[in-house]
Write a structure and sequence with these properties.
By secondary structure, the chain is an alpha+beta fold. Helices cover 16% and strands 42% of the residues.
Length: 148
C-alpha cells in the first residue's frame, strides 16, 4: 500500500511531467530511508530514441529516479520542509542490468550523512530482486527560489 501517491509527491518536489519519475512511495522513515516505485511503461517519451526496436531506460534517468526518491526522503525531514533538494554529485555509480518497459523499478534510499544543508545517500534501484543500479548521491538543500 502506497503511503504517498503521485499528487502528494508533486506537492513536495518540483518535478512535473515529463520528468517526474516516482509513481508512489512504499515506505518512508523520515530522516533515515525510503522505498519508492517507478513503473516503467512503453509510453515514456525517452523510449522513442533510446533505442527504437530495443527500448532501454537511460542510465541517467535511473539516477534521476533515485535522486527524486532521495529528494522526497530529504524534504520529509522537518529541518528541510518547504525547501528544494538539488543533486550535487554522483559517486560510485554502477549499472548492473538494463531496465525495460514493463519493469517495476524499486528505489531504495538510505541517508548516511547529513550536515546543515547537505548530505549523502546510498541508493539502489532494483527490478524483480535484481540490482539495476547502485550509486552514492550528494545533495544540497536550499530555499525553494534560492539560486545555488
Amino acid at each position: 500500500m502506497a503511503i504517498m501517491d503521485a499528487q502528494e509527491i508533486m506537492d513536495l518536489i518540483p518535478n512535473r511531467f515529463p520528468i517526474i519519475y516516482i509513481d508512489y512511495v512504499d515506505e518512508l522513515i523520515a530522516g533515515e530511508s525510503i522505498i519508492a516505485t517507478k513503473n516503467v511503461t512503453i509510453n515514456e517519451s525517452f523510449f522513442k530514441g533510446h533505442f527504437p526496436g530495443n527500448p532501454v531506460m537511460p542510465g541517467v534517468l535511473i539516477i534521476e529516479s533515485l535522486a527524486q526518491a532521495a529528494s522526497i526522503l530529504i524534504l520529509k525531514s522537518p529541518e528541510f520542509a518547504g525547501k528544494t533538494a538539488y543533486l550535487g554529485a554522483i559517486h560510485k555509480a554502477k549499472f548492473r542490468r538494463v531496465v525495460r518497459p514493463g519493469d517495476v523499478l524499486k528505489l531504495h534510499i538510505k541517508l548516511t550523512k547529513k550536515r546543515e544543508n547537505m548530505g549523502i545517500v546510498e541508493t539502489k534501484a532494483v527490478v524483480n530482486g535484481e540490482k539495476a543500479c547502485l550509486a552514492e548521491l550528494m545533495f544540497v538543500v536550499a530555499e525553494r527560489n534560492e539560486k545555488i
